[in-house]
Amino acid sequence: MGPEVDRGLFSLSGKRALVTGGAQGLGRMIAEGLLRAGAQVAITSRKAEVCERAAQEMSAIGPCTPLPADLSTPEAAVELARRYREAVGGLDILVNNAGKTWGGPIETFPDKAWPGVMAVNVQTPFTLVREFLPELTASGAADGPSRVINIGSVAGVAIEPLQAYSYSASKAAIHQLSRQLAADLSERNITVNAVLPGFFPTSMTAHLRDNEGAPKGVIDNHIPLRRLGRPDDIAGIIVFLASRAGAYVTGAEIPVDGGIIGCR
Ligand SMILES: NC(=O)c1ccc[n+]([C@@H]2O[C@H](COP(=O)([O-])OP(=O)(O)OC[C@H]3O[C@@H](n4cnc5c(N)ncnc54)[C@H](OP(=O)(O)O)[C@@H]3O)[C@@H](O)[C@H]2O)c1
Q1: Is the residue at 6 inside a domain?
Q2: Residue 14 near residue 38 (C-beta atoms within 8 A)
Q3: How far is the CA of 151 from the centre of ligand 1 (A)?
């Protein structure tokens, strides 16, 4: 029998997803993509009113639950898992998207730029996977595994002139953690992959753009496909990985970067 592309290969109907940092930026693009593919989605944001407004707006697409959370400590991740369980119940797709950066010259790069970045970008994603093991194990099956998708970065692979020392180290760490978890959780029918965005116009990259929104010299000199990332670019890879189409992919590091890594 051939592939069933026309019969729900990319459908997420009946699936439950949690997207950390899903109220804005890449997380919002991801949450909207999952909703459009038919999933019900819970999102987090640090500010309750931002989280609630975003969830209300996205409810026009599909069921979206706001779960405000500041994920700078493992305790907060444990508490988020508890509140998710109470509000939604089971979990099929966990997207660890929330991320924090810090850039500055090495001479004055402060020690305080390390623990917060490592906590949000590496430790909290790990804690969430650990806490959600019962749900992810329950919803994973041999021909339909549950999914963990960690948002890494090209900065964790390629050398970028960002002087974001703790950030690039944290992204390399989440890539490696994803592979380790993929190996350890395969027998529970849980896939774990890292998606590595290149350059998307969000608040995290605002300092690299000028008033017109174009990055200073970055597109021409740095991105082989000569444009910034768009919502469809990130939503497409996430829906693929989360759907039946992505069921056989685990332990992968997938760049979505217009060729920055692949064309080096
Ligand atoms: N934009 C790019 O080109 C690019 C490239 C490579 C990788 N990435 C990665 O993509 C992910 C999303 O970033 P973005 O570009 O969309 O930037 P962004 O708009 O600044 O979003 C950052 C997200 O992380 C959340 N967050 C930050 N600190 C948090 C904390 N302590 N607790 C809970 N949530 C926290 C924010 O939630 P709030 O709503 O509370 O602010 C927000 O949703 C990050 O992991 C980033 O490293 C982005």
Answers
A1: no
A2: yes
A3: 9
